[in-house]
Known about the structure:
The complex is a heterodimer. Helix content of chain A is about 75%, strand content about 0%. Chain A has two domains: about 70 residues, no CATH class; about 210 residues, MetI-like fold, CATH 1.10.3720. By secondary structure, chain A is mainly alpha-helical. By secondary structure, chain B is mainly α. Chain B folds into two domains: about 50 residues, no CATH class; about 240 residues, MetI-like (MetI-like fold, Orthogonal Bundle). A two-stranded antiparallel sheet of chain B has the order 1-2. In chain B, helix 4 packs across helix 16, helix 7 runs parallel beside helix 11 and helix 15 runs antiparallel to helix 16. Chains A and B meet through helix 1, helix 2, helix 4, helix 5 and helix 6 of A and helix 3, helix 7, helix 8, helix 9 and helix 11 of B.
Amino acid sequence: MTQITANAANGVRPSHPALAIVGKTLLYIVLIAIALVTLIPFVWMISASLKLDREVFSYPIHWVPEVFHWENYSLIWSKVPLLTYFKNTAFIAIVVTFIQTLTSSFAAYAFAKLRFRGRNVLFICYVATIAVPWQTYMLPQFILMRSMGLYDTLWAIVVLQSFSAFGVFLMRQFYQGIPTELCEAARIDGLSEYGIWARIMLPLSKAAIATLVIFTFVGTWNDYMGPMIYLTRDVNKTVQVGLRRFIQENSSDYHLIMAVSVCSLLPVSIVFLSLQKYFIQGIATTGLKG
Amino acid sequence: MAQTKDRKPLYKRHMTRYERKKELIAYSFLAPNFIGFAVFTLLPVLFSIFLSFVKWKGGDFSTMQWVGLGNYAEIFKTAKVAEKGIGYLFTKVDLGIALKNTLFYTLVTVPMTLVCSVALALALNKAVKGAVGFRTIFFFPYVASMVAICVCWRFMMMKDGPINQFIMALGINFNKSWTADSGMAIWSIILVSVWRNMGYYMVIYLAALQGVPTDLYEAATMDGANKWQQFAHVTLPQLRPTTFFASTMLIISCFKIYDVVAIMTEGGPGRSTKMLVTYIYDEAFANFNYGIASAIAMVLLVIVLIFTLIQFSMEDRYAND
């Protein structure tokens, strides 16, 4: 309150209430307009997925289909093995998320709280590879995996995604914020290092783990280039490459392509909408993973 | 300093059994991740440097042929470029065209994304009702899968699609498919990229805005600064480290662009949207020129590393300020 009166005394013009209302209204109009632009592709996608083939590009455009063709959604299941794609993607995403979170938090504990020879050199190795784009070593990685017999198996994508340096880096940053005294006290109480990790570090790092889980899951689910290089047989395809195949084979069935697209977006949308708080927090605190 | 000197001999002198056991425990924590990391990341990184110096079509390792800098001479077409001038590189040579396209895409996408995300963050930083809802909407494209949204945008940008209908309604005569027009194709990729990324950087800016001390604004108001002056002299300078961070991240991710191009234009029409990674992919997985692909990969690596190093050194400068 004193601030406001001080301003007035200094001759700063207080903004006129009517002007403030106009400004606020303008702000809302602009925000709503941008929100609409952001959502238009999704709206168009859903709308097209419920139309007949020839109605998709009708002029003028009908945002709401005249007749809702729900049968498009049952039709696509007979045209593509969508269920297989979903199963494969879910398998990869869950296994990767599990391995990634577990091994990263394990390694991060060593980097943050234990002393051993070569700690700094090893950590620099990890940090340095974060800066190296995957695209620069995808080919040698591919050659390696093919010689190991992993080509065209789901495990190729699992090992490809599971050991990212990013996870270790993120967890280590978080563990460093946990006071070392806690670990020392536990050691004196006779807890082993594994016990400290399980009973103290893990419960304290729920926020970091939530961030890592979400980003790994969504990143793996949406990954396109990896599965496209490795998975060729239809039984092994993920949703993303499966959708791509469907697009190539039925390039003019716009309504069906859009129906498959809507289906492919659903799982991640549900995860995002229910956990969006953690997404936002995760980016705000780490700012990483661009 | 004295303390680190005292600590060093610990490793020099003979280790006690207790110390050795402690170290083994530490390695056991590290091992599960490190083995995977070493085999599937570290090894391929080193291997890719080696591959850029050999000629190899895959298959048997004995067919590998050491060519030194031959692959680099080949992708830069050094002989032809030396003869016909640097212009030849960027108009005729695949690598030059890919570099030019990637650079153009980056130079347009980065500032556009930054401006949009700052604007959105500033708007939402005000006491707006439903801010969480807006934030969710703006962020949503970032988590949506690329294949679905890119194919949707491609359809919307088709000849009779809703976007051209809208443009025609504005009185502009344009009735070509964006992704099939060599001039517009790259713009379609830019638009989709900005649309997808602005929400992500908006979140970063929102976090940064929350960190701007409010007494700075109070002081500025006392000095009679209007809203615009406050923005230019308080908000923007305070956001500078964030802007620097965000632009480095964006530049790097722009240089790695692949998904959008693969789904919307496949590098075409002609070579008008051929990017560095598209070029690597084609040479590696379509033409099986492993050496050439690795040499192009090294060009990408050098570019990304330069930006990363700049980011690191600037971070130190901000930290010391």
